[in-house]
Design brief:
The mean pLDDT is 89. The protein has 23 helices and eight strands. Among the domains are: 113 residues, Orthogonal Bundle (Arc Repressor Mutant, subunit A), CATH 1.10.10.10; 61 residues, Winged helix-like DNA-binding domain superfamily/Winged helix DNA-binding domain (Arc Repressor Mutant, subunit A, Orthogonal Bundle), CATH 1.10.10. The strands form three sheets. The protein has a three-stranded mixed beta sheet with strand order 1-6-2, with helices on one face. It has a three-stranded antiparallel beta sheet with strand order 3-5-4.
Length: 500
Protein backbone atom coordinates (compact mmCIF):
# COMPACT_ATOMS: atom_id res chain seq x y z
CA UNK A 1 0.00 0.00 0.00
CA UNK A 2 2.80 2.39 0.92
CA UNK A 3 4.61 1.66 -2.36
CA UNK A 4 1.41 2.38 -4.30
CA UNK A 5 1.01 5.76 -2.58
CA UNK A 6 4.64 6.64 -3.33
CA UNK A 7 4.12 5.71 -6.98
CA UNK A 8 0.92 7.77 -7.22
CA UNK A 9 2.70 10.73 -5.61
CA UNK A 10 5.50 10.46 -8.17
CA UNK A 11 2.94 10.46 -10.99
CA UNK A 12 1.30 13.58 -9.55
CA UNK A 13 4.58 15.46 -9.32
CA UNK A 14 5.27 14.81 -13.00
CA UNK A 15 1.76 15.92 -13.95
CA UNK A 16 0.47 12.50 -15.08
CA UNK A 17 -3.06 13.05 -13.72
CA UNK A 18 -4.80 10.67 -16.11
CA UNK A 19 -2.75 7.70 -14.90
CA UNK A 20 -3.43 8.63 -11.27
CA UNK A 21 -7.18 8.70 -11.99
CA UNK A 22 -6.97 5.34 -13.75
CA UNK A 23 -5.18 3.67 -10.85
CA UNK A 24 -7.57 5.19 -8.28
CA UNK A 25 -10.53 3.78 -10.21
CA UNK A 26 -9.17 0.27 -9.56
CA UNK A 27 -9.13 0.75 -5.78
CA UNK A 28 -12.04 -0.22 -3.53
CA UNK A 29 -12.12 2.42 -0.75
CA UNK A 30 -13.66 -0.03 1.72
CA UNK A 31 -10.69 -2.39 1.39
CA UNK A 32 -8.00 0.22 2.02
CA UNK A 33 -6.31 -0.10 5.46
CA UNK A 34 -7.23 2.65 7.94
CA UNK A 35 -3.65 3.81 8.68
CA UNK A 36 -3.20 4.69 4.97
CA UNK A 37 -6.63 6.26 4.41
CA UNK A 38 -5.55 9.89 4.86
CA UNK A 39 -2.56 9.44 2.53
CA UNK A 40 -4.70 7.93 -0.24
CA UNK A 41 -7.35 10.62 0.25
CA UNK A 42 -4.62 13.22 -0.19
CA UNK A 43 -3.58 11.64 -3.51
CA UNK A 44 -7.19 11.63 -4.75
CA UNK A 45 -7.76 15.23 -3.67
CA UNK A 46 -4.57 16.47 -5.32
CA UNK A 47 -5.62 14.69 -8.53
CA UNK A 48 -9.01 16.41 -8.39
CA UNK A 49 -10.90 13.17 -7.70
CA UNK A 50 -12.74 14.72 -4.76
CA UNK A 51 -15.64 12.25 -4.60
CA UNK A 52 -13.22 9.36 -4.12
CA UNK A 53 -11.60 11.22 -1.24
CA UNK A 54 -14.97 11.93 0.42
CA UNK A 55 -16.17 8.33 0.06
CA UNK A 56 -12.93 7.10 1.56
CA UNK A 57 -13.11 9.42 4.59
CA UNK A 58 -16.85 9.86 5.22
CA UNK A 59 -17.23 6.80 7.52
CA UNK A 60 -14.63 8.30 9.87
CA UNK A 61 -15.27 12.07 9.67
CA UNK A 62 -19.10 11.85 9.52
CA UNK A 63 -19.73 8.46 11.18
CA UNK A 64 -23.21 7.02 11.59
CA UNK A 65 -24.76 6.54 15.03
CA UNK A 66 -24.54 2.78 14.59
CA UNK A 67 -20.82 2.87 13.81
CA UNK A 68 -19.28 5.61 15.95
CA UNK A 69 -15.60 6.33 15.41
CA UNK A 70 -13.13 9.16 15.87
CA UNK A 71 -11.43 10.77 12.89
CA UNK A 72 -7.82 11.86 13.14
CA UNK A 73 -6.93 15.54 12.53
CA UNK A 74 -5.25 14.54 9.25
CA UNK A 75 -8.41 12.74 8.08
CA UNK A 76 -10.50 15.81 8.92
CA UNK A 77 -8.07 18.02 7.04
CA UNK A 78 -8.31 15.91 3.89
CA UNK A 79 -12.09 15.71 4.18
CA UNK A 80 -12.43 19.50 4.53
CA UNK A 81 -10.10 20.09 1.58
CA UNK A 82 -12.08 17.64 -0.59
CA UNK A 83 -15.38 19.26 0.41
CA UNK A 84 -14.07 22.61 -0.76
CA UNK A 85 -12.78 21.09 -3.97
CA UNK A 86 -16.22 19.69 -4.73
CA UNK A 87 -17.91 23.04 -4.07
CA UNK A 88 -18.90 22.96 -0.39
CA UNK A 89 -16.38 25.70 0.40
CA UNK A 90 -18.09 27.11 3.50
CA UNK A 91 -18.42 23.69 5.16
CA UNK A 92 -14.86 22.82 4.19
CA UNK A 93 -13.47 26.03 5.68
CA UNK A 94 -15.45 25.53 8.89
CA UNK A 95 -14.02 22.04 9.30
CA UNK A 96 -10.47 23.16 8.54
CA UNK A 97 -10.61 26.12 10.91
CA UNK A 98 -11.84 23.81 13.68
CA UNK A 99 -8.37 22.23 13.50
CA UNK A 100 -6.57 25.47 14.39
CA UNK A 101 -5.51 24.01 17.75
CA UNK A 102 -3.58 21.21 15.99
CA UNK A 103 -0.07 21.40 14.58
CA UNK A 104 -0.83 20.09 11.10
CA UNK A 105 1.79 21.69 8.81
CA UNK A 106 -0.51 21.56 5.74
CA UNK A 107 -3.55 23.13 7.44
CA UNK A 108 -2.81 26.76 6.57
CA UNK A 109 -2.11 25.79 2.96
CA UNK A 110 -5.50 24.13 2.53
CA UNK A 111 -7.34 27.01 4.18
CA UNK A 112 -5.65 29.28 1.62
CA UNK A 113 -6.68 27.05 -1.29
CA UNK A 114 -10.34 27.17 -0.25
CA UNK A 115 -10.11 30.96 -0.16
CA UNK A 116 -8.69 30.76 -3.70
CA UNK A 117 -11.86 28.94 -4.81
CA UNK A 118 -13.86 32.03 -3.85
CA UNK A 119 -11.27 34.37 -5.42
CA UNK A 120 -10.39 35.53 -1.88
CA UNK A 121 -6.67 35.89 -2.56
CA UNK A 122 -6.10 38.64 -0.01
CA UNK A 123 -7.53 36.42 2.75
CA UNK A 124 -5.26 33.57 1.61
CA UNK A 125 -1.99 35.50 1.89
CA UNK A 126 -1.42 35.25 5.69
CA UNK A 127 -2.16 31.50 5.60
CA UNK A 128 0.34 30.93 2.79
CA UNK A 129 3.00 33.02 4.54
CA UNK A 130 2.53 30.88 7.63
CA UNK A 131 2.75 27.69 5.58
CA UNK A 132 6.05 28.45 3.84
CA UNK A 133 7.80 29.42 7.09
CA UNK A 134 7.17 26.04 8.74
CA UNK A 135 10.31 23.95 9.07
CA UNK A 136 8.50 20.60 8.86
CA UNK A 137 7.38 20.89 5.22
CA UNK A 138 9.59 19.39 2.53
CA UNK A 139 11.34 21.65 -0.02
CA UNK A 140 8.97 20.74 -2.88
CA UNK A 141 5.85 21.61 -0.86
CA UNK A 142 7.47 24.88 0.17
CA UNK A 143 7.93 25.75 -3.52
CA UNK A 144 4.26 24.92 -4.16
CA UNK A 145 3.32 27.23 -1.29
CA UNK A 146 5.51 30.01 -2.65
CA UNK A 147 3.96 29.61 -6.11
CA UNK A 148 0.47 30.00 -4.67
CA UNK A 149 1.60 32.98 -2.62
CA UNK A 150 2.91 34.55 -5.82
CA UNK A 151 -0.49 33.98 -7.46
CA UNK A 152 -2.17 35.72 -4.53
CA UNK A 153 0.23 38.69 -4.76
CA UNK A 154 -0.49 38.94 -8.49
CA UNK A 155 -4.24 39.19 -7.81
CA UNK A 156 -3.69 42.13 -5.43
CA UNK A 157 -0.87 43.58 -7.58
CA UNK A 158 -2.38 47.05 -7.77
CA UNK A 159 -2.73 47.14 -3.96
CA UNK A 160 1.00 46.84 -3.15
CA UNK A 161 1.15 43.18 -4.17
CA UNK A 162 4.01 44.01 -6.54
CA UNK A 163 6.37 44.86 -3.68
CA UNK A 164 6.64 41.22 -2.56
CA UNK A 165 5.72 39.52 -5.83
CA UNK A 166 8.69 40.23 -8.08
CA UNK A 167 11.47 39.11 -5.65
CA UNK A 168 9.44 35.96 -4.94
CA UNK A 169 9.08 35.15 -8.65
CA UNK A 170 12.81 35.67 -9.22
CA UNK A 171 13.63 33.29 -6.35
CA UNK A 172 11.12 30.70 -7.54
CA UNK A 173 12.49 30.72 -11.09
CA UNK A 174 16.04 30.23 -9.83
CA UNK A 175 15.15 27.39 -7.45
CA UNK A 176 12.94 25.47 -9.86
CA UNK A 177 15.47 25.72 -12.72
CA UNK A 178 18.23 24.49 -10.46
CA UNK A 179 16.20 21.58 -9.06
CA UNK A 180 14.47 20.61 -12.28
CA UNK A 181 10.87 21.15 -11.15
CA UNK A 182 9.56 22.02 -14.61
CA UNK A 183 5.86 22.20 -13.74
CA UNK A 184 6.38 24.81 -11.00
CA UNK A 185 8.87 26.65 -13.23
CA UNK A 186 6.29 26.82 -16.03
CA UNK A 187 3.69 28.31 -13.67
CA UNK A 188 6.26 30.75 -12.33
CA UNK A 189 7.10 31.93 -15.83
CA UNK A 190 3.40 32.42 -16.59
CA UNK A 191 2.97 34.60 -13.48
CA UNK A 192 6.12 36.56 -14.40
CA UNK A 193 4.62 37.13 -17.86
CA UNK A 194 1.48 38.58 -16.25
CA UNK A 195 3.68 41.11 -14.44
CA UNK A 196 5.44 41.94 -17.72
CA UNK A 197 2.05 42.52 -19.39
CA UNK A 198 1.07 44.90 -16.57
CA UNK A 199 4.29 46.82 -17.23
CA UNK A 200 3.65 46.75 -21.00
CA UNK A 201 6.90 44.80 -21.56
CA UNK A 202 5.40 42.93 -24.51
CA UNK A 203 8.50 41.15 -25.84
CA UNK A 204 9.50 39.91 -22.40
CA UNK A 205 5.98 38.59 -21.78
CA UNK A 206 5.97 36.85 -25.15
CA UNK A 207 9.25 35.04 -24.42
CA UNK A 208 8.16 34.02 -20.93
CA UNK A 209 4.88 32.58 -22.20
CA UNK A 210 6.64 30.75 -25.03
CA UNK A 211 9.01 29.05 -22.57
CA UNK A 212 6.18 28.25 -20.15
CA UNK A 213 4.13 26.68 -22.96
CA UNK A 214 7.09 24.57 -24.08
CA UNK A 215 7.56 23.19 -20.57
CA UNK A 216 3.86 22.29 -20.34
CA UNK A 217 3.59 20.84 -23.86
CA UNK A 218 3.20 17.26 -22.64
CA UNK A 219 1.05 18.14 -19.62
CA UNK A 220 -2.64 17.36 -19.50
CA UNK A 221 -5.37 19.33 -17.77
CA UNK A 222 -5.84 23.08 -17.99
CA UNK A 223 -2.33 24.42 -17.36
CA UNK A 224 -1.41 24.71 -21.09
CA UNK A 225 -4.74 26.52 -21.61
CA UNK A 226 -3.77 29.17 -19.04
CA UNK A 227 -0.66 29.95 -21.08
CA UNK A 228 -2.73 30.24 -24.26
CA UNK A 229 -5.15 32.54 -22.44
CA UNK A 230 -2.37 34.95 -21.53
CA UNK A 231 -0.91 34.76 -25.03
CA UNK A 232 -4.32 35.81 -26.37
CA UNK A 233 -4.63 38.61 -23.80
CA UNK A 234 -1.11 39.75 -24.73
CA UNK A 235 -2.17 39.96 -28.40
CA UNK A 236 -5.19 42.04 -27.38
CA UNK A 237 -3.19 44.46 -25.24
CA UNK A 238 -0.28 44.65 -27.68
CA UNK A 239 -2.10 44.80 -31.01
CA UNK A 240 -5.49 46.16 -30.04
CA UNK A 241 -8.96 44.79 -30.71
CA UNK A 242 -7.93 43.23 -34.00
CA UNK A 243 -9.18 40.23 -35.95
CA UNK A 244 -6.06 38.33 -34.85
CA UNK A 245 -6.59 38.99 -31.12
CA UNK A 246 -10.29 38.16 -31.39
CA UNK A 247 -9.47 34.88 -33.13
CA UNK A 248 -6.97 34.01 -30.38
CA UNK A 249 -9.53 34.74 -27.66
CA UNK A 250 -12.17 32.77 -29.54
CA UNK A 251 -9.87 29.72 -29.72
CA UNK A 252 -9.16 29.95 -25.98
CA UNK A 253 -12.87 30.15 -25.20
CA UNK A 254 -13.58 27.11 -27.38
CA UNK A 255 -10.92 25.04 -25.59
CA UNK A 256 -12.06 26.31 -22.18
CA UNK A 257 -15.64 25.32 -22.95
CA UNK A 258 -14.52 21.85 -23.99
CA UNK A 259 -12.37 21.43 -20.85
CA UNK A 260 -15.06 23.01 -18.63
CA UNK A 261 -12.51 25.62 -17.53
CA UNK A 262 -15.20 28.13 -16.63
CA UNK A 263 -12.99 30.58 -14.76
CA UNK A 264 -10.91 30.97 -17.90
CA UNK A 265 -14.08 32.03 -19.76
CA UNK A 266 -14.81 34.57 -17.02
CA UNK A 267 -11.26 35.94 -17.08
CA UNK A 268 -11.25 36.31 -20.88
CA UNK A 269 -14.40 38.44 -20.67
CA UNK A 270 -12.93 40.42 -17.75
CA UNK A 271 -9.79 41.46 -19.62
CA UNK A 272 -11.49 41.98 -22.99
CA UNK A 273 -14.28 44.01 -21.38
CA UNK A 274 -11.87 46.32 -19.58
CA UNK A 275 -9.56 46.75 -22.57
CA UNK A 276 -12.34 47.51 -25.05
CA UNK A 277 -14.49 49.37 -22.46
CA UNK A 278 -17.40 47.31 -23.77
CA UNK A 279 -20.09 47.97 -21.17
CA UNK A 280 -22.17 44.92 -22.14
CA UNK A 281 -19.21 42.60 -21.49
CA UNK A 282 -18.26 44.36 -18.25
CA UNK A 283 -21.85 44.09 -17.03
CA UNK A 284 -21.96 40.41 -17.96
CA UNK A 285 -18.86 39.74 -15.84
CA UNK A 286 -20.13 41.82 -12.92
CA UNK A 287 -23.67 40.51 -12.75
CA UNK A 288 -22.70 36.98 -13.73
CA UNK A 289 -20.06 36.52 -11.03
CA UNK A 290 -21.11 35.34 -7.56
CA UNK A 291 -17.73 36.04 -5.91
CA UNK A 292 -17.64 39.32 -3.93
CA UNK A 293 -13.83 39.57 -4.15
CA UNK A 294 -13.87 39.26 -7.93
CA UNK A 295 -16.56 41.93 -8.28
CA UNK A 296 -14.71 44.21 -5.86
CA UNK A 297 -11.60 43.82 -8.02
CA UNK A 298 -13.62 44.80 -11.09
CA UNK A 299 -15.06 47.83 -9.27
CA UNK A 300 -11.56 48.98 -8.29
CA UNK A 301 -10.31 48.55 -11.84
CA UNK A 302 -13.24 50.54 -13.22
CA UNK A 303 -12.52 53.30 -10.71
CA UNK A 304 -8.83 53.28 -11.60
CA UNK A 305 -9.81 53.83 -15.23
CA UNK A 306 -11.96 56.82 -14.36
CA UNK A 307 -15.22 54.95 -14.25
CA UNK A 308 -16.79 53.52 -11.11
CA UNK A 309 -19.51 51.31 -9.66
CA UNK A 310 -22.05 53.93 -10.70
CA UNK A 311 -21.19 53.15 -14.33
CA UNK A 312 -22.95 49.81 -13.86
CA UNK A 313 -26.72 49.56 -13.63
CA UNK A 314 -28.44 47.82 -10.70
CA UNK A 315 -29.81 45.06 -12.92
CA UNK A 316 -29.02 43.26 -16.16
CA UNK A 317 -31.26 41.53 -18.67
CA UNK A 318 -29.75 38.09 -19.30
CA UNK A 319 -30.96 36.50 -22.53
CA UNK A 320 -30.62 32.75 -22.07
CA UNK A 321 -31.00 31.05 -25.46
CA UNK A 322 -32.66 33.50 -27.84
CA UNK A 323 -31.50 36.81 -29.27
CA UNK A 324 -35.14 37.87 -29.30
CA UNK A 325 -36.67 36.23 -26.19
CA UNK A 326 -40.42 35.65 -26.00
CA UNK A 327 -40.69 37.15 -22.53
CA UNK A 328 -38.94 37.89 -19.26
CA UNK A 329 -38.85 36.93 -15.58
CA UNK A 330 -37.64 39.27 -12.81
CA UNK A 331 -35.81 37.08 -10.29
CA UNK A 332 -36.09 39.72 -7.58
CA UNK A 333 -39.79 40.58 -7.71
CA UNK A 334 -41.21 37.58 -9.56
CA UNK A 335 -42.83 39.89 -12.12
CA UNK A 336 -43.04 38.24 -15.54
CA UNK A 337 -44.48 38.87 -18.99
CA UNK A 338 -46.13 35.47 -19.27
CA UNK A 339 -48.74 36.30 -16.63
CA UNK A 340 -48.55 40.10 -16.08
CA UNK A 341 -51.11 39.98 -13.26
CA UNK A 342 -49.38 37.12 -11.44
CA UNK A 343 -46.02 37.12 -9.67
CA UNK A 344 -43.86 34.01 -9.72
CA UNK A 345 -43.30 33.47 -6.00
CA UNK A 346 -42.53 29.84 -5.22
CA UNK A 347 -41.71 28.55 -1.74
CA UNK A 348 -38.55 30.16 -0.30
CA UNK A 349 -36.20 27.19 -0.85
CA UNK A 350 -37.31 26.97 -4.48
CA UNK A 351 -36.71 30.69 -4.91
CA UNK A 352 -33.24 30.33 -3.38
CA UNK A 353 -32.59 27.44 -5.76
CA UNK A 354 -33.65 29.46 -8.80
CA UNK A 355 -31.61 32.51 -7.78
CA UNK A 356 -28.57 30.32 -7.12
CA UNK A 357 -28.87 28.76 -10.58
CA UNK A 358 -28.87 32.29 -12.04
CA UNK A 359 -25.98 33.66 -9.96
CA UNK A 360 -23.19 32.55 -12.27
CA UNK A 361 -23.34 33.21 -16.03
CA UNK A 362 -20.18 31.17 -16.65
CA UNK A 363 -19.99 28.22 -14.31
CA UNK A 364 -22.84 25.69 -14.06
CA UNK A 365 -24.11 24.79 -10.61
CA UNK A 366 -23.51 21.33 -9.15
CA UNK A 367 -25.49 19.38 -6.59
CA UNK A 368 -22.78 20.26 -4.06
CA UNK A 369 -22.92 24.02 -4.59
CA UNK A 370 -26.73 24.03 -4.73
CA UNK A 371 -27.03 22.00 -1.52
CA UNK A 372 -24.53 24.26 0.26
CA UNK A 373 -26.47 27.40 -0.68
CA UNK A 374 -29.92 26.02 0.12
CA UNK A 375 -28.98 24.14 3.30
CA UNK A 376 -26.03 26.14 4.73
CA UNK A 377 -26.41 24.58 8.19
CA UNK A 378 -26.37 20.94 7.03
CA UNK A 379 -23.41 18.69 6.25
CA UNK A 380 -23.01 17.58 2.65
CA UNK A 381 -23.31 13.83 2.18
CA UNK A 382 -22.46 12.16 -1.13
CA UNK A 383 -25.30 9.67 -0.79
CA UNK A 384 -28.22 11.73 0.55
CA UNK A 385 -27.55 15.40 -0.28
CA UNK A 386 -27.86 15.09 -4.08
CA UNK A 387 -31.32 13.51 -3.58
CA UNK A 388 -32.44 16.58 -1.60
CA UNK A 389 -31.36 18.82 -4.48
CA UNK A 390 -33.03 16.64 -7.12
CA UNK A 391 -36.31 16.73 -5.18
CA UNK A 392 -36.18 20.53 -5.06
CA UNK A 393 -35.33 20.69 -8.77
CA UNK A 394 -38.36 18.50 -9.50
CA UNK A 395 -40.60 20.83 -7.50
CA UNK A 396 -39.12 23.92 -9.17
CA UNK A 397 -39.79 22.46 -12.61
CA UNK A 398 -43.38 21.77 -11.55
CA UNK A 399 -43.83 25.36 -10.33
CA UNK A 400 -42.41 26.78 -13.56
CA UNK A 401 -44.69 24.55 -15.64
CA UNK A 402 -47.70 25.51 -13.52
CA UNK A 403 -46.92 29.20 -14.14
CA UNK A 404 -46.36 28.53 -17.87
CA UNK A 405 -42.89 30.07 -17.67
CA UNK A 406 -40.69 28.45 -20.37
CA UNK A 407 -37.62 28.20 -18.17
CA UNK A 408 -35.80 24.85 -18.13
CA UNK A 409 -33.22 23.56 -15.66
CA UNK A 410 -30.90 21.59 -17.92
CA UNK A 411 -28.54 18.93 -16.55
CA UNK A 412 -25.39 17.66 -18.24
CA UNK A 413 -22.82 15.45 -16.50
CA UNK A 414 -23.92 16.66 -13.09
CA UNK A 415 -23.85 20.34 -14.07
CA UNK A 416 -27.04 22.43 -13.99
CA UNK A 417 -27.78 25.44 -16.18
CA UNK A 418 -30.85 27.50 -17.04
CA UNK A 419 -32.17 27.60 -20.58
CA UNK A 420 -35.25 28.79 -22.40
CA UNK A 421 -36.56 31.35 -24.91
CA UNK A 422 -36.74 34.14 -22.34
CA UNK A 423 -34.64 36.69 -20.51
CA UNK A 424 -33.98 36.94 -16.79
CA UNK A 425 -33.75 40.25 -14.96
CA UNK A 426 -30.89 39.74 -12.54
CA UNK A 427 -29.78 41.99 -9.69
CA UNK A 428 -26.09 42.17 -8.95
CA UNK A 429 -25.14 40.30 -5.84
CA UNK A 430 -23.87 42.76 -3.21
CA UNK A 431 -20.09 43.13 -2.93
CA UNK A 432 -20.18 42.92 0.85
CA UNK A 433 -22.25 41.70 3.75
CA UNK A 434 -25.36 43.74 4.60
CA UNK A 435 -24.64 46.71 6.91
CA UNK A 436 -25.49 46.03 10.55
CA UNK A 437 -27.92 48.94 10.48
CA UNK A 438 -29.89 47.27 7.66
CA UNK A 439 -29.90 43.90 9.46
CA UNK A 440 -31.11 45.60 12.65
CA UNK A 441 -33.91 47.27 10.70
CA UNK A 442 -35.02 43.91 9.23
CA UNK A 443 -34.91 42.29 12.67
CA UNK A 444 -37.02 45.10 14.12
CA UNK A 445 -39.59 44.69 11.37
CA UNK A 446 -39.58 40.93 11.80
CA UNK A 447 -40.20 41.34 15.51
CA UNK A 448 -43.25 43.51 14.80
CA UNK A 449 -44.82 41.89 11.73
CA UNK A 450 -43.47 38.33 11.82
CA UNK A 451 -44.35 36.48 8.60
CA UNK A 452 -47.03 39.00 7.56
CA UNK A 453 -46.54 41.35 4.60
CA UNK A 454 -46.34 45.12 5.09
CA UNK A 455 -46.20 48.35 3.10
CA UNK A 456 -43.52 51.00 3.00
CA UNK A 457 -45.77 53.34 5.00
CA UNK A 458 -46.30 50.72 7.71
CA UNK A 459 -42.55 50.07 7.92
CA UNK A 460 -41.81 53.81 8.15
CA UNK A 461 -44.28 54.10 11.03
CA UNK A 462 -42.68 51.16 12.89
CA UNK A 463 -39.13 52.47 12.44
CA UNK A 464 -40.22 56.11 12.92
CA UNK A 465 -38.60 57.48 9.79
CA UNK A 466 -39.71 59.20 6.60
CA UNK A 467 -41.32 57.34 3.70
CA UNK A 468 -38.50 58.47 1.43
CA UNK A 469 -35.79 57.06 3.72
CA UNK A 470 -37.77 53.86 4.21
CA UNK A 471 -38.21 53.36 0.46
CA UNK A 472 -34.43 53.61 0.02
CA UNK A 473 -33.79 51.08 2.81
CA UNK A 474 -36.42 48.65 1.55
CA UNK A 475 -34.99 48.84 -1.97
CA UNK A 476 -31.55 47.89 -0.65
CA UNK A 477 -33.04 45.06 1.44
CA UNK A 478 -34.80 43.64 -1.63
CA UNK A 479 -31.56 43.97 -3.62
CA UNK A 480 -29.79 41.95 -0.92
CA UNK A 481 -32.58 39.36 -0.98
CA UNK A 482 -33.53 40.06 2.65
CA UNK A 483 -37.07 40.96 1.57
CA UNK A 484 -39.52 39.56 -0.98
CA UNK A 485 -42.05 41.77 -2.73
CA UNK A 486 -45.53 41.39 -4.16
CA UNK A 487 -47.52 43.93 -6.15
CA UNK A 488 -45.96 46.94 -7.82
CA UNK A 489 -45.59 50.72 -7.52
CA UNK A 490 -47.66 52.09 -4.60
CA UNK A 491 -49.34 48.71 -4.11
CA UNK A 492 -46.00 47.01 -3.33
CA UNK A 493 -45.97 44.91 -0.17
CA UNK A 494 -42.89 43.44 1.48
CA UNK A 495 -42.23 40.24 3.40
CA UNK A 496 -39.20 39.09 5.39
CA UNK A 497 -37.25 36.58 3.28
CA UNK A 498 -34.20 35.46 5.25
CA UNK A 499 -31.46 36.67 7.57
CA UNK A 500 -27.79 35.72 7.52
Amino acid sequence: MKNEIEHLDSLLRTGNLSEVERRLSLINPKEWPRPQVAALASIARRAGVFKFSLRLLNPFVRPSIRRPTQASPQEKLEYGAALGGLGAVSEGLTLLKSLAHTELPELSFHIALLHFREWEYREAIPHLKKFITQKSIDPYRKLVGQLNLAAAFEFVYEDNGSRELEPLLHSLAHQTRTQGFERILANTLELTAQVAIKKRHWREAEELLRESGALLRSSGGTEPLFVRKWQAILKLFRGGDSEESQMALREVREIATRLRAYETLRDCDYHEGLFTARSSLISKVYFGTPYPSYRARLEKELERRGLGRESLADTIIWNLDAKEPRGHLDLSSGENSFHPQTYFKPQQKLLTLLRTLAQDFYKPSTTTTLFSKIYPDRHFNLESSPNCVYQLLHRLRQELARANIPLTVFESRGDFTLSGPLSLKVCSAPSSNPPKSLLNLIRTLQGRVGDASFTSAEAAKIIKTSRRSMNRLLTEAVHRQLLDTEGRARATRYKIASLE
